[in-house]
Specification:
The chain has about 140 residues and is α/β, with parallel strands linked by helices. Strands 4-1-5 form a three-stranded parallel β-sheet, with helices on both faces. Helix 1 packs across helix 4. The N terminus is likely disordered.
Length: about 140
């Protein structure tokens, strides 16, 4: 399926993938190996294969995670500060930080989608289905 199918027009849509290194219950859970690849690789691949995102951005506080994300085709234009990368940090903090940094770098977009790396069985088809539902429901602000 292509962009015209979902009538994206010229909206800019980005995928935001949160991947901090400090998981307390499972050390390095975002890069744990599953069938020879780190978990985050499956999320990046699904986002890329959906072909609806102008950018796939990983928000991380780790150089190691950054290198892995880049290897699998995502962008990591900056690292997330430690103070907003704790188990107590809200999504709002890293999302706001990321959006503001992207704007300062000159990249503007209209919508974003959060894709967590701990859902390795989410496929591009799932992402496309969610986007289609989102686009149909004009009163919806997230999905």
């Amino acid at each position: 399926m292509n962009k015209r199918y979902f009538n994206i027009k010229k909206q800019k849509l980005i995928a935001l993938i949160p991947a901090r290194k400090g998981s307390e219950r499972i050390k390095n859970k975002n890069i744990k190996s599953l069938n020879g690849h780190p978990l985050i690789a499956y999320t990046i691949a699904a986002a890329r294969n959906s072909k609806i995102f102008d950018k796939i951005i990983v928000s991380t506080d780790s150089i190691k995670y950054s290198n892995i994300a880049k290897h699998y085709g995502a962008e990591v234009p900056f690292l997330r500060p430690k103070e907003i990368s704790t188990s107590k940090s809200t999504d709002f903090l890293w999302i706001y930080f990321t959006i503001e940094k992207l704007k300062k770098k000159g990249f503007n977009f209209e919508k974003f989608c959060i894709l967590r790396p701990t859902s390795p069985f989410r496929t591009s088809k799932t992402i496309l289905s969610a986007w289609k539902i989102f686009k149909k429901n004009t009163n919806t602000d997230s999905i």
